[in-house]
Hints:
With 124 residues, the protein is mostly beta strands. The chain contains no helices and 11 strands. The protein has strands spanning 3-7, 10-13, 18-25, 32-39, 46-52, 58-60, 68-73, 78-83, 92-100, 113-114, 118-123. The strands form 2 sheets. Strands 2, 4, 5, 6, 9, 10 and 11 form a 7-stranded mixed beta sheet that branches. Strands 1-3-8-7 form a 4-stranded antiparallel beta sheet, with no helix packed on it. A hairpin with a 4-residue loop joins strand 7 (68-73) and strand 8 (78-83). The radius of gyration is 13 Å and the shape is globular. The chain starts with a strand and ends with a strand.
Amino acid sequence: xxxxxxxxxxxxxxxxxxxxxxxxxxxxxxxxxxxxxxxxxxxxxxxxxxxxxxxxxxxxxxxxxxxxxxxxxxxxxxxxxxxxxxxxxxxxxxxxxxxxxxxxxxxxxxxxxxxxxxxxxxxx
Length: 124
């Protein structure tokens, strides 16, 4: 059973930065997709960023492009989300997810395993 553990959430002021980490354990493979999703109260869970660990291809939603960076450390089976220039509208629970893939995938339904989430709160 794959397990994902997120960390790095917290409270920051607008314009600040946070780095989220997601460590995967259990049976994993080098060719997989790891994604970050977020869900604000009363809203649907949306994809924020994803990476195909087999080649490093990345995806970003329009709302975070240019501000967030997803990266990987294959030796540690960990993916990171560096979040800069944070805005109040980035406030949400952030979830890490993983699935086996041959190219980057971006939609919620394509991911098989999910972490418990880490809260990010951005104040104005």
